[in-house]
Amino acid sequence: MASTENNNNLKRIRNNYRLVVMNDDTYEEVVTFRLSRLSVYIGLSTVFVILVGLTIALIAFSPLKYYIPGYGTRESRTALQVLKMRTDSLEQAIRYKEQYIDGVKKVLSGNTPSSLDTIALEIPKADISNE
Length: 131
Known about the structure:
There is one protein chain. By secondary structure, the chain is mainly alpha-helical. The protein has a two-stranded antiparallel ribbon. The mean pLDDT is 85. A hairpin with a 6-residue loop joins β1 and β2. It contains four helices and two strands. It folds into two domains: 66 residues, no CATH class; 52 residues.
């Protein structure tokens, strides 16, 4: 039974139909098209693929791509990396100054754990090699 339904669907897809455009006043045939469901499907699929391709090409090869969120110029990405490095170094400098201020507060309040009047900073070895 499934094979007869498949045959009916294939026949229906391949059946030819006539599309006639007529002048409403004179009933004269202006244009006549011989179509099948398969040709209409193929035609609409082709138009869809072409429109998608043209849209992608328009965005990719024109300045419209700069309006897409997350897409930027090379200069802006480079500037962002420089700002990120500066921010990281400033955060590190703030941490070192906070350690120093905490040490000074401990010395001034007399809460030093040893006889030393300063507390050693915890400086990673990677940063020492950069200086």
